[in-house]
Design brief:
This protein folds into two domains: 6-67, Winged helix-like DNA-binding domain superfamily/Winged helix DNA-binding domain (Arc Repressor Mutant, subunit A); 86-119, no CATH class. Helix content is 66%, strand content 8%. Helix 1 (6-18) packs across helix 2. The protein is elongated. It has a three-stranded antiparallel beta sheet. The longest helix is centred in the middle third of the chain and has 17 residues, at 67-83. It contains six helices and three strands. The chain is mostly helical and 119 residues long.
Length: 119
Amino acid sequence: MRELGLVERRFAEIVWQNAPISTKDLVALCEKELGWKRTTTYTVLKKLCGEGLFLTENSTVTLVVTREEYDAIQSEDFVKGNFGGSLPAFIAAFTSRKKLTDEELDEIRRMIDQYGGNG
């Protein structure tokens, strides 16, 4: 799944925060929050529905991919594309310029304990 542009991401955030939402209410929100006309809202909605992010049925927009799922996909793609899929290589690069706090280290240890061995 491709990375959303800034404007698309702002639109997606509105949908993620309000879904399920009627297309009428979405148009009103986008006019208020983004200053968009109805046609712009429908154009971007159609594009993101076509990419499998959202679904519109019976004038209601629902989620196909949640914000958390989208962010996870993007994170995985980033690590694959920049670090050959190696999470340790990513962490090594990340921590080479930023010292982790004790709280961050504890959280990482909890994550390893929780997800270790679960694939």
